[in-house]
């Protein structure tokens, strides 16, 4: 299979990476979809819907059937204005779900956390990835991540969930500031023992950014390809779509799919979304165009 850089001069070899995620090997020679599984009562889009263990399992099962390569489990809301929860409360929410997903579905599980206790426990329960919106800046998180042996996604943000959307501002073009932050954070993590081949980067759409910031960041997202690391993108149902299109959360799918296709064209390796089936179709269609041909064995099989 050709890599995306063969189809578009804006792409880099980062798209050809394979990540060892515990006992799973994640093939990133084509874009993969990460399904969101929030086990929180207050997430902005689906809070409270999957708190019960059986509900969480069934939803994960549906997302896997629709083509999700990864299930991202979160036990603390990071929506704008969200309040932090204790490490024990987050662990109580996340641990049973991770354990069940690994045991019953053999899923590649990512855990959306900044908490060192959760990082350690998730690794012991069989999770294959850590997804940290605070880029391992919380005390003890980097050491826990190094010890876990798992790949980690480092995300750019400005501020904390409680205040990040109050007055976000940047002194230079946002894509340059985001890239500079990630370069510094990658170096700090490598210096502490986190190997570069275990690092994923996320530009952090919606985390301390205005609509204009988000749109420009996507427009120039190929800037991040210079880092030659896999790129994770999360824009699903976010307010940038609502503000541009005037749509409530439940009517943002079409806008999100448009952003997905543009992100794939700009080199996104992992798309973190709520609506897995529709996103898989958008990813596969965009990829087919970039590859100038049909690739039926991407995120799900076709019977046509």
Automatic annotation (TrEMBL):
CDD domains: DHPS. SUPFAM superfamilies: Dihydropteroate synthetase-like. It catalyses: (7,8-dihydropterin-6-yl)methyl diphosphate + 4-aminobenzoate = 7,8-dihydropteroate + diphosphate. Keywords: Folate biosynthesis, Magnesium, Metal-binding, Transferase. GO terms for biological process: folic acid biosynthetic process; tetrahydrofolate biosynthetic process. The keyword Metal-binding applies. GO terms for molecular function: dihydropteroate synthase activity; metal ion binding. Its EC number is 2.5.1.15. GO terms for cellular component: cytosol. Pfam families: Pterin_bind. Its cofactor is Mg(2+). Pathway: Cofactor biosynthesis; tetrahydrofolate biosynthesis; 7,8-dihydrofolate from 2-amino-4-hydroxy-6-hydroxymethyl-7,8-dihydropteridine diphosphate and 4-aminobenzoate: step 1/2. Residues 31-284 form the Pterin-binding domain. The keyword Lipoprotein does not apply. This is dihydropteroate synthase. It comes from marine sediment metagenome.
């Amino acid at each position: 299979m050709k890599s995306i850089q063969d189809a578009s001069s804006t792409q880099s070899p980062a798209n050809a990476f394979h990540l060892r995620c515990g006992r799973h090997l994640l093939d990133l020679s084509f874009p993969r979809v990460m399904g969101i599984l929030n086990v929180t009562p207050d997430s902005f889009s689906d809070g409270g819907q999957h708190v019960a263990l059986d509900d969480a399992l069934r939803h994960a099962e549906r997302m896997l059937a629709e083509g999700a390569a990864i299930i991202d489990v979160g036990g603390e809301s990071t929506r704008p204005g969200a309040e932090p929860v204790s490490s024990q409360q987050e662990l109580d929410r996340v641990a049973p779900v991770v354990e069940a997903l690994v045991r019953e579905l053999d899923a590649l599980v990512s855990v959306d956390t900044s908490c060192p206790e959760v990082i350690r426990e998730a690794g012991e329960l069989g999770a294959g990835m850590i997804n940290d919106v605070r880029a391992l800046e919380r005390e003890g998180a980097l050491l826990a991540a190094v010890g876990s042996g798992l790949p980690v996604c480092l995300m750019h943000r400005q501020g904390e969930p409680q205040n990040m959307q109050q007055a976000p501002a940047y002194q230079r073009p946002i894509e340059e500031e985001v890239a500079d932050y990630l370069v510094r954070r990658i170096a700090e993590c490598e210096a502490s023992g986190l190997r570069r081949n275990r690092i994923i980067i996320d530009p952090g759409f919606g985390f301390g950014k205005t609509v204009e910031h988000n749109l420009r960041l996507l427009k120039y997202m190929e800037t991040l390809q210079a880092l030659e690391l896999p790129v994770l993108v999360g824009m699903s149902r976010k307010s940038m779509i609502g503000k541009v299109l005037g749509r409530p959360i439940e009517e943002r799918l079409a806008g999100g799919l448009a952003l997905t296709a543009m992100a794939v064209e700009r080199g996104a390796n992992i798309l973190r979304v709520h609506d897995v089936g529709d996103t898989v179709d958008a990813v596969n269609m965009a990829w087919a165009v970039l590859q100038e041909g049909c690739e039926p064995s991407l995120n799900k099989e076709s019977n046509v």
